[in-house]
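W.,

You were right to be curious about this one. When I first looked at the sequence I had no strong expectations either way, so I just let the prediction run and decided to look at it fresh. Below is the sequence, 165 residues in total, followed by the output.
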Amino acid sequence: MLNAFFIRDYRPEDFDAVTILWRIARAKSLPAFQRAQGPFFSEDQDYFRNHILKENKLWVAEMDRRVVAFMAMRNEFIDQLYVHPGYQNRGIGKALLDCARQLSPEHLWLYTLQINLSARVFYENNGFIAEKFGISPPPESEPDVEYHWRKSNSLPFKKYETNVP
């Protein structure tokens, strides 16, 4: 089936694919920001290993035996959600959000940078509401937006067949 993907738990062998995807997606969505503030790839990997993996539960979307997206989440908070630029606009990001809604059916929240207009449009199109504007913590120290999704304000979402309970 064309564009068929599935969502599964992150596995340690996904590390390289996910960290490369993470870097490519950030460079594509915010090229000037990434050039100005972007760390070396080894620093990205260290941060991913020492913070994202330790503080969150991760899922990946796989298509054609490739990791094409991932989501990192703890409780109601979506810490990271990235789709490889070559696989965007295929419903993968929405499917990851729907999985997050299955895990936290009443409320979700996240941050994105104010300059990341494509992410802001994506979240707003998926029922998230900008509730707070501020400054992200170091090392970014950039204007950000805190978004919230609440079941009470939303349309029903699609449940996906995954290994998510």
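Here's what jumped out at me. The chain is about 35% helix and 30% strand. And, maybe more interesting for your project: The two ends are 25 Å apart (CA to CA).

Coffee later to discuss?

I.
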